[in-house]
Automatic annotation (TrEMBL):
Biased composition (Basic and acidic residues): 41-50
The organism of origin for this protein: Halorubrum salipaludis
Residue span, DUF6788 domain: 53-106
Residues of the signal peptide: none
Protein name: DUF6788 domain-containing protein
Region called Disordered, residue ranges: 41-71
Length: 107
């Protein structure tokens, strides 16, 4: 581990870099956790938008419950340090979720 502070990515706005530099270690860990969750959310939103735009409807997967639309995707949610699979889909302006199963750590 280096004793020099890390170099921020060149594409980060100066205001964000300054805010991070002024934060204590606990706040930085909270920011990192939030940033990762937000990135996953935005990626999931983009996938849902993309799948909604596709005209082809794929065959219904065997493990897809009847109440879940065929365009649903599987996402992983971290809850209390445990990971779970959820079906997720867009219904109008809302994103809906339904529990599927726990994530197998051996996968």
């Amino acid at each position: 581990m280096s004793y020099e502070p890390p170099t921020p990515p060149a594409n980060l706005p100066t205001e964000i870099v300054n805010t991070l530099n002024e934060s204590d270690p606990e706040q930085l860990r909270d920011i990192a956790t939030y940033a990762e969750a937000l990135a996953q959310h935005k990626e999931r939103e983009a996938r849902l938008e993309e799948s909604a735009d596709q005209e082809e409807v794929e065959d219904r997967p065997d493990d897809l419950p009847d109440e879940i639309p065929t365009k649903a995707t599987i996402t992983i949610k971290n809850i209390n340090e445990n990971r779970y699979y959820y079906w997720q889909w867009r219904d109008g302006d809302q994103v809906k979720s339904k529990y599927k199963s726990p994530v197998n750590p051996d996968e």
